[in-house]
């Protein structure tokens, strides 16, 4: 045995799974295994909460088998469902999965219960201790009460420690060495790594090329806009105090005229166009529709007199200087992703070469001996498929403020993958691979990344996307005479699963938000990460920057008791329900890219045994 025994805990309870009661038993068992006495021998897989499943034979068996097949546990401990009532079916659910039994462990549990329990009820409890038939996993089924479960487990823990070599030596332990961490932990690992990176370099770009780029510094207005009191209507500049009545038209001012008009005296008006500067002395504008011609004059020039039909307040239909942009204000903050409106603002201020952040460089490659270029024509040799991930990810990256270096397809050959990753780490800010991160003998990416830096996670409790891997790599200088990397500088590496849907979904969940943060000036990035509050366990588990919304399901959706799922859905607004209705894109297999085609969102389907009913509220990540 290499390390501590990895224990998965399952609470079997209708009331906990329906949210009617708190999982005190699961919490108690986790606390016991994490206590000072036992934490050197055991670690709890799956974070700080037990898996919860209802008292249903199929659901219990399915969950426990998934946990064992996953390779992330050495021991599964269930609590609950061992009593005599009709709903107590844990031993029956486990029976088909089990091989060798350990009656001694069961006898020990009964002895302890007899000693500690005031009532004889313990004798009706049916605890289980056995080795799984098909996996090197020990299965222990405990009674469900917090006191009973803890009392039964603690005395048998020494037997579990000594039993390990017996079962690990049989069918060798072939699970992943990477624990399957919860989404929130994965998010935190990415945020911690991004937070520690230096501020990106900055460059200036022409205004026409600046849309979508990230502003590197605050842009402050040095003058008021409008720079003069400007008319908001075509009509007549007036002295508001004059009120309604007939007045001579003494001048005509149009937008753009650069001659200062003479001061307007009370008892007279000036014809004016929208955007023209108000003559000194005028304090309001009356739109032409609220006037009548009193004396048209010759008809060639402005009318000689008009009747103002309504009296107006001072300031009516006038934009005072600085009302749109006041001198001294920060118009655009560093970190703003420039939109067309922002380009207009910069143009207003006369900023024609804004300083922006240098686009992070993403080095993209696909791994897989089976892959050929998308452009390969005709029938492919047996076993070969076209590389869809790289064109797909490149297309997605094209919508982001990043520069892409395409390293093409790399065969599953250790030397070739190692060389490609080393080149990527020398030339990129972020390395993005797909394929080669699961359990096959040709899945080389994880071990190679481990030699180049630190792997922060190698599996995430997520569907699709379980083998998603995130590492930070030491930045290697691109050439011998290149400047050494800045202290603390590192290259982010995301090794996405090869299944195309898994690659796309995990790109959306981790890579796109990480790139957005990477492209922020340090102060803005730090603030964005702090605002995300991922260090607060009650905060949302997703990366900041994702566009979240709520929706109701258009139909029931089955849930996975082992992993939360990001189900591809099409959202449609329902005026009747005043809500977005989410409808599945069909079979969600992670090789079936059609499930992502046309999807407008990823609906978060929680990890649970019961399906979500039609109309259930779900969180969605907008795509
Ligand atoms: N024993 C286990 N096997 C697998 C597990 C597991 O837990 N235990 N996890 C499965 C899951 S979940 C996923 S997702 C995949 C991920 O596998 P890899 O990341 O190692 O990817 P590959 O094996 O290289 O490829 C998987 C699949 O995708 C196709 N592929 C790969 N790259 C591309 C590409 N660029 N364009 C199109 N299609 C691609 C490849 O041909 C495979 O069909 O592992 C499961 N296995
Ligand atoms: O987790 Mo894999 O990405 O389901 O297919």
TrEMBL record:
CDD domains: MoeA, MogA_MoaB. Its cofactor is Mg(2+). InterPro entries: MoaB/Mog-like_dom_sf, MoaB/Mog_dom, MoCF_biosynth_CS, MoeA-like, MoeA_C_domain_IV, MoeA_C_domain_IV_sf, MoeA_linker/N, MoeA_linker/N_sf. It catalyses: molybdopterin + ATP + H(+) = adenylyl-molybdopterin + diphosphate; adenylyl-molybdopterin + molybdate = Mo-molybdopterin + AMP + H(+). Residues 8-163, 363-517 form the MoaB/Mog domain. SUPFAM superfamilies: MoeA C-terminal domain-like, MoeA N-terminal region -like, Molybdenum cofactor biosynthesis proteins. One of its GO terms (cellular component) is cytosol. It comes from the Eukaryota. Keywords: Magnesium, Metal-binding, Molybdenum, Molybdenum cofactor biosynthesis, Transferase. PROSITE patterns: MOCF_BIOSYNTHESIS_2 (PS01079). Pathway: Cofactor biosynthesis; molybdopterin biosynthesis. Gene3D superfamilies: MoaB/Mog-like domain (3.40.980.10), MoeA, C-terminal, domain IV (2.40.340.10), Molybdopterin biosynthesis moea protein, domain 2 (3.90.105.10), Molybdopterin biosynthesis moea protein, domain 3 (2.170.190.11). Pfam families: MoCF_biosynth, MoeA_C, MoeA_N. SMART domains: MoCF_biosynth. One of its GO terms (molecular function) is ATP binding. One of its GO terms (biological process) is Mo-molybdopterin cofactor biosynthetic process. In the C-terminal section; belongs to the MoeA family. Catalyzes two steps in the biosynthesis of the molybdenum cofactor. In the first step, molybdopterin is adenylated. Subsequently, molybdate is inserted into adenylated molybdopterin and AMP is released. This is Gephyrin. It comes from Thecamonas trahens ATCC 50062. The lineage of its organism: Eukaryota, Apusozoa, Apusomonadida, Apusomonadidae, Thecamonas.
